[in-house]
Amino acid sequence: MTERAPLSRKPKLSDKLSAIAESATLKVDAKAKALQAAGRPVISYAAGEPDFATPQFIVDAAAEALQNPANFRYTPAAGLPALREAIAAKTLRDSGLEIDPSQVIVTNGGKQAVYQAFQTVVNPGDEVLLPAPYWTTYPEAIALADGTPVEVFAGADQDYKVTVEQLEAARTDRTVALVFVSPSNPTGSVYTLEETKAIGEWAVEHGIWIISDEIYQNLVYEGTKAVSIVEAVPAAADQTILVNGVAKTYAMTGWRLGWMLGPKDAIKIAGNLQSHLCSNVNNIAQRAALAALTGPQDEVEQMRQAFDRRRRTIVAELSKIDGVEVPTPLGAFYAYPDVRGLLGREWAGVTPTTSLELADLILEKAEVAVVPGEAFGPSGYLRLSYALGDDALLEGVQRLQRLFAS
Predict the structure, then answer these.
(1) What does the pLDDT look like over 281-307, one tens digit per residue?
(2) To which protein family does this belong (predicted)?
């Protein structure tokens, strides 16, 4: 047998995918879980995941779906008709937008909806305005569409909300889209009706697509309403893609069920993409999501009230730490303290100069996992998810109080 000559060089991998960073939030959460598995009493504020079980009536609907062989077959790539109808009804109810179910695509979680939204409206070299702090996936999804994210930062002094003036200063002739998220991950900030209207009208004036992530719209507090940008500015509906899902509101993160909706021409090409990318979403998860959207909402309200209680606790306790500024979040389940007052000072023999170094110090010395601001934009901030048990939440913050009192 003739021996095969060795390759002169290893085949090259994709430059585009090689440049994509690992999800920082998942990375920190995985590290925390590994330490917990090794026996260390780590308390993790890293993952944006409710600690509640999925409501039983939703689980029961999935179990019932398993008895129907029709759910074992291919179904329409854009989603089960009944679920698309339920999503259209929810959108009218919560976002004030009346759409035809044909304008809905059911996706494998909100992340796929975000990915497909940028693939739909971005061409190579286009710029997308990205208010910061931002969810760690947005810039990577923009880059995967060959676009360029343009960060527009708003600090704690602005409650982490950008203004029209800031957006206009960042706009160029290559700007094609704006990311709008209210309530926000990672900050929990919620734009007012007036703020939302001003941004929507600005986008309409300049013919800019809006990618609006509404996955936290039902998790708001103190009587706040997360006003959809298409409700504040109806004219914006012709250039807006809404993304949403059941993960956060219904404690269904592992079910991987999200959706996107928008103008018919945009949804048509996004649907073509999905038909080749993955076809239909798991039918059992779709049946569970249908039950979630159409069933009783009392457990959802109970979870929201628990998040509200934890929100008040974490803000009050973090505010006791000298050098920490905590704007009060009105939505989602995150606190985003400004910790620049802790940097450049010695703590337990270490002098952190960035929030990345600070997060490492906190994990090592206090056995508390938090996500540094570098994952969401500029350094100097931390994200803490309060979607964990009340006792663990309080204990974790008290560990931070002891660390930074030393």
Answers:
(1) 999 999 999 999 999 999 999 999 999
(2) Belongs to the class-I pyridoxal-phosphate-dependent aminotransferase family.
Whether residue 388 contacts residue 36, with contact meaning beta carbons closer than 8 Å, is answered with no
Q: Is residue 393 helix, strand or coil?
A: helix
Locate 36 and state its tokens. Answer: 């917990």
Whole-number Å distance between alpha carbons of 224 and 188: 12
| CA angle 80–82–85, rounded 5-degree value | 110
Same fold, 15-53+299-403 and 58-294: no
- For residue 323, CA distances in Å to 337, 338, 371 come to 10, 8, 18
Tell me the domain boundaries of the chain.
Answer: 15-53+299-403, 58-294
CATH 3.40.640.10 fits 58-294, yes or no: yes
Answer whether residue 200 shows pLDDT above 70. yes
Residue 147 has what pLDDT? Answer: 98
The CA dihedral of 248, 254, 255, 261, to the nearest 10 degrees, is 50
**Token reading at 351:** 């002098």
pLDDT in tens, 29-58: 888 888 888 888 999 999 888 999 999 999
Q: CA distances (Å), 189 to each of 30, 158, 159, 184, 323, in order?
A: 26, 10, 7, 5, 21
**Strands 240-245, 43-44: pairing kind:** unpaired
pLDDT tens string 314-349: 999 999 999 999 999 999 999 999 999 999 999 999
Which of 7-16, 174-183, 258-267, 362-371 comes out lowest in average pLDDT? 7-16
Q: What angle do CA 270, 260, 247 make, to 5 degrees?
A: 135
CA-CA distance, 314 to 316, in Å (whole number)?
5
Give, in order, the Cα–Cα distances in Å from 91 to each of 139, 160, 244. 26, 26, 10
Say if residues 150 and 297 touch (Cβ distance below 8 Å): no
Q: What's the average model confidence in pLDDT over 116-126?
A: 98
CATH code at 15-53+299-403: 3.90.1150.10
